[in-house]
Design brief:
Porin; 68% strand; single chain; mainly beta
Length: 180
């Protein structure tokens, strides 16, 4: 609840600071081992740029691609980004630099000596900077949809428990929203 309150507070501050249009909506991103679903707010700084805020949920199954034979987890987090559009009115092709922070819990398992299953849980704080390319379609004066492709890196900046997977990440996403 405090994340939604923080997002609401940021939206109100940004809205009071200028008269550029803003977008409020949802984003869904998939990556090879999971997905992100978020609530987004993009505050227009100019006809070609915006600050992007989001809060959301991360769900993943690293399978055997992590440190352990199985790593399944989820968590909540948010991000801050800057988006630049190549056309005015914040539509068409755009690029974005964004940094996420996720607070995840991971249930992991390994197979030990004599096929004995070893299990544990790790709490991690993940820093995930990404660079994105997207295309914003204005469906009407107020509705937009934007597919995107992002590439970045996941760093487990704080680990409580056994180390878990981290590394390069590729995300395919779509954002939909209302422009006001």
């Amino acid at each position: 609840m405090r994340y939604l309150s923080a997002l609401y507070f940021m939206m109100m501050l940004c809205h009071l600071s200028g008269q550029n249009t803003s977008n409020f909506g949802f984003e869904f991103q998939i990556y090879p081992t999971g997905y992100l679903s978020t609530i987004n707010y993009d505050h227009g700084l100019s006809e070609k740029s915006a600050l992007a805020f989001r809060v959301g949920y991360n769900n993943f199954d690293h399978r055997d691609l992590g440190v352990h034979a199985s790593e399944i987890g989820d968590g909540i987090g948010g991000s801050l980004g800057y988006r630049f559009y190549f056309k005015s009115e914040r539509k068409g092709w755009n690029v974005m630099l964004r940094s996420d922070i996720w607070f995840n819990n991971v249930d992991w398992a390994d197979i030990g000596v004599n096929d004995i299953r070893i299990v544990g849980q790790t709490s991690i704080i993940v820093l995930q900077p990404t660079a994105s390319m997207g295309y914003a379609f204005l469906i009407s004066d107020h509705f937009m949809i934007q597919p995107s492709l992002s590439f970045g890196y996941e760093w487990n900046v704080k680990t409580t428990g056994s180390p878990t997977g981290q590394g390069a990440i590729l995300l395919l996403g779509v954002q939909g929203g209302y422009r006001f």
